[in-house]
Amino acid sequence: MGPGGTATVGSSTINLTKTIVGAGMLAIPFVFKNDGVLVGIILTLLAAITSGFGLFVLARCSKVLTNPRTSSFFTLCMITYPSLSPLFDVAMIVQCFGVGLSYLVLIGDIFPSLFGGERNFWILASAIIVWPLCSLKKMDSLRYSSIVGLMALTYIFILVISMFVIKTMIEQDVTAERGPINWIRVYSWKGLLSSFSIVIFAYTGSMNIFSIINELEDNAMTEINKIINYSISISSFFFLSVGITGYLTYGSNTLGNILLNYDPNSPWIYIANFCLASMLILSFPLLFHPLRIAMNNLVVFFRMKYPAVVHPSASMENLADIENDDGPEDYYFNSSAASITATATRTSMASIVMNIEDDDIDVDDNLLASSIRTSDMDQVQDGSSEIMTLPERGEEEQHVSFPDSRFYIITFTLLPLMYLISLRLRSFAFVLSLVGATGSTSMSFTLPGLFGYKLIGSDSLAVGQMVSKRDMFYKKCSLLLTWFGIIVMILSLYVTMKYGAGN
């Protein structure tokens, strides 16, 4: 555990829960319409377990770093699949940029129905709240806006359950609005495939897990596991409660957004729509935070990969000095190596290092663990060697720099771009479904599985131990998670391309 963390388990749980629970909650009753109650519950729990395990794997992989507070998708890519690092960051950008755009479009659709006026006016007006929140550097600074967003979602949650009680238990004639209900039978097999991608999209929260780990005051795995378990449990409670009660209220007549089933003239629905619009505004910064980090990673990658293009007068020897003019150290790439090797810009030229935590080593192996500081671990893959060097005393791996100048340039370049595009978009449903099928599955399953399969257990190998049975189990599950993500992506894309374009 390194210095600098200020976030608590409570504030981190709020931010992660708010990242997961968003507008996707309103589509869960539609999932139950397609799948039936039993299958809907099973798929929701499956998504919860797999998404939660993906978050756990990412957290576990961060512990191979000397300073886990420097963890990110970029950092892990540098010690696993360095040449694919830009691809991973592009997947993050597509996910966050696409969902953020859809939020702005929805803001423009909802507020005019509440207060009148033009949609473009309300999209631009949202910048009064969105832009200051997006200018905050730490995710923990968003905890108060996340609390307000969760309060808005809680109101919608209570509304859906209350309407179920009123219409099914108090009112006499419920058949006029409610269609048939399937408890076990699947209503639509085509809908089963598409609705599962909706649930997967609803559970996506991995884009912010590293920021939470980096800012946590006590970032031990026990504390991180609490955050993940609490967040997944709370999210599952929201999703299952809204999904089941919303579906039982309207049956086969349930719409894609459960709020559309209710009387639009009701003051309670008016408040619910206001809560939804407010939640979208407050959720946007949580998506923009990882988007900005991914953009910075790309900038760093290309600055270091192509120094002659970025700095024509720079050489590999003085590139570190150029980077240090902007801020902390960056990673650069040794082009003379047989494979791309992530190398910290410092005189020792030590590669990204690995950390062995005391609580991961048996008592009998303490003496062995104390001698690993000068050990190296070679991983030979596809004929190339990637050396992960353990640190000398007092050393730690360098984090990706994010100087203030670049922070604000990226922020106030992306924000106007997203707002400009949102002013011209009228419907983003199809593009959003593509984003969910690709970005969400990549962030939740494929990438965590790839990282976990390669990194979990490497700390044991570094001290000359066999990989424990527990870590071998995690490695195998990580591999299964990767294939699970690939299969879900293929099926989701197939359904989206075949049926989504016409919707």
UniProtKB/TrEMBL annotation:
Short name of one Pfam family: Aa_trans
Source organism phylogeny: Eukaryota, Fungi, Dikarya, Ascomycota, Saccharomycotina
UniProt similarity note: Belongs to the amino acid/polyamine transporter 2 family.
Primary location: membrane
Protein name as catalogued: Amino acid transporter transmembrane domain-containing protein
Signal peptide segment: none
Residue ranges occupied by any Amino acid transporter transmembrane domain in the UniProt entry: 6-491
Record field: transmembrane: 12-32, 38-59, 119-136, 148-166, 186-206, 227-248, 268-288, 431-456, 477-497
Cellular component annotations (GO), alphabetically ordered: fungal-type vacuole membrane
InterPro entries: AA_transpt_TM
MF (Gene Ontology): L-arginine transmembrane transporter activity; L-glutamate transmembrane transporter activity; L-histidine transmembrane transporter activity; L-lysine transmembrane transporter activity; L-serine transmembrane transporter activity; L-tyrosine transmembrane transporter activity
Key words, A-Z: Membrane, Transmembrane, Transmembrane helix, Vacuole
Localization terms from the record: Vacuole membrane
Keyword Electron transport: no
Superkingdom, taxonomy of origin: Eukaryota
Topology term for the membrane: Multi-pass membrane protein
